[in-house]
Write a structure and sequence with these properties.
Bound molecules: heme C
Low-confidence stretches: 179-196
Mean pLDDT: 84
CATH architecture of the domain at 83-173: Orthogonal Bundle
Number of strands: 0
Helix content: 40-55%
Strand content: under 5%
Structural class: mainly alpha
Distance between the termini: 102 Å
Radius of gyration: 27 Å
CATH class of the domain at 83-173: Mainly Alpha
Shape: elongated
Number of helices: 9
Length: 196
């Protein structure tokens, strides 16, 4: 008889019977950033960062809008990072290879594996991109442009600026030998202006 009771006591899965330690059976975990009903229950718990605040050490949010006006205004946005050292540049190079080289190519010449498959990939070695202001590059990497998607979710603000520093440093290498301007004088912008 005991055996029968034991056997039949577990067969109803919908009504598992008395739970002695509900705290341990059912998790009270709340998703960190998901909407929840805690405030309605009078529990003082703030799942989201306080509006208008940023994480310690984080860069300020990019506030220009994703439209042609924002693209225009981005010309004046300056890279907030100090110049990268060789370790930083190596990391930026790594991020470029992972995120950008598939289209723009490891040599920035638009000859990545997707060349010909994605239309209109910018050849970052062309003068128009060599002299493109860094803020405008940041705008495009943040929001995307035509066939290029946004990289805001793959790269945080700091990483996006790092990648742009990498591109600028590569561009400086290719534009330097071509220019007759004495080495080290001025930026690429100055030298193109000198040519005109
Ligand atoms: C899916 C392919 C693809 C990937 C990946 C990609 N791009 Fe692009 N990129 C493009 C195309 C296409 C354009 C040309 C957009 C246009 O002007 O129509 C472009 C344009 C650009 C420009 C010129 C922006 C301008 O103002 O015209 C920059 C700078 C740039 N990309 C940087 C990057 C960086 C940095 C990454 C990696 C974080 C990246 N791209 C990843 C396809 C890509």
């Amino acid at each position: 008889m005991l055996a029968t009771i034991v056997l039949f006591s577990c067969n109803d899965r919908r009504h598992p019977g008395r739970i002695y330690m509900p705290d341990m059976t059912y998790s009270r975990a709340y998703e960190a950033n998901a909407p929840n009903d805690l405030a309605a229950k009078g529990i003082n718990y703030l799942p989201f960062p306080v509006p208008g605040t940023i994480r310690r050490g984080d860069l300020f949010p990019y506030t220009l809008s994703n439209d042609s006006n924002g693209y225009k205004l981005a010309i004046d946005i300056k890279d907030p990072l100090p110049p990268l050292d060789s370790v930083g540049l190596n990391e930026a190079h790594r991020l470029f290879n992972i995120n950008c080289a598939i289209c723009h190519g490891p040599n920035l010449d638009a000859q990545g594996p997707l060349a010909g498959k994605v239309g209109g990939i910018a050849n970052l070695k062309m003068p128009q991109y060599v002299k493109e202001p860094e803020g405008q590059m940041f705008h495009v990497v943040t929001y995307g442009k035509n066939n290029m998607g946004s990289y805001a979710s793959q790269l945080d603000r700091r990483q996006r600026w790092m990648v742009i520093q990498f591109i600028k440093s590569e561009q400086a290498k290719i534009s330097a030998p071509k220019d007759s301007v004495a080495a080290g004088s001025g930026t690429t912008k100055d030298s193109t202006m000198a040519k005109k």
